[in-house]
Every structure is written in structure tokens, then in C-alpha cells.
Specification:
mainly alpha, 4 helices, elongated
Length: 95
């Protein structure tokens, strides 16, 4: 698929290029969300949202400019918390 630049020359947009553009847009949205979260604390961390969307810890770390180990720990703790909440909601008190 060839497109024309403003200068008039053709440019190719590959699937990798499209993916990079989408990741860039996602990174901007994440940055905006992080700025809002700094003002109002909420339960869901950006890392959990992105992991739920199918992104790897490596990609998430790259987008958020964090260490992979930090992202992995956040995901682990988020899963542990979700498991704990699920157990509490299905426990004997609710039977």
C-alpha cells in the first residue's frame, strides 16, 4: 500500500509501522491516564488494564517507562488481590 507524503514522494506503511503507530497512540493515552491517576487514586492500575488487553509485561514496561520486573510485580499483586476479592465474595458469609 503506497501513500503520498506532503512532499509528494511515496512512502510505504508496513504492518510493523502500523503497529508502532498504534503503540505510540496507546502510549500517549496511557500517559494521559497516568497524569489523571496522580490526581485521583483508583483501584485499577494501568498495568492491569494493559495486561487485560493482551499486552506483554515487556511491552507494558516499555510504554510506561518502567522496569519489566516492576510491571511483573504489579501484575502479580493485582492478580493476588483479585483472587482474594473473589474468594471473599464466594465465602461462607455470602452463602
Amino acid at each position: 500500500m503506497a501513500r503520498t507524503r506532503a512532499s509528494g514522494g511515496p512512502t510505504e506503511i508496513s504492518n510493523d509501522g502500523n503497529r508502532d503507530v498504534l503503540i505510540g497512540i496507546l502510549a500517549l493515552l496511557v500517559d494521559e491516564r497516568e497524569a489523571k491517576l496522580a490526581q485521583v487514586p483508583i483501584e485499577r492500575k494501568t498495568e492491569l488494564v494493559l495486561a487485560g488487553a493482551g499486552l506483554s509485561a515487556l511491552t507494558i514496561a516499555s510504554l510506561l517507562n518502567k522496569k519489566v520486573a516492576t510491571v511483573e510485580m504489579t501484575l502479580y499483586r493485582g492478580k493476588q488481590k483479585a483472587t482474594k476479592v473473589a474468594k471473599m465474595s464466594t465465602g461462607p458469609a455470602n452463602a
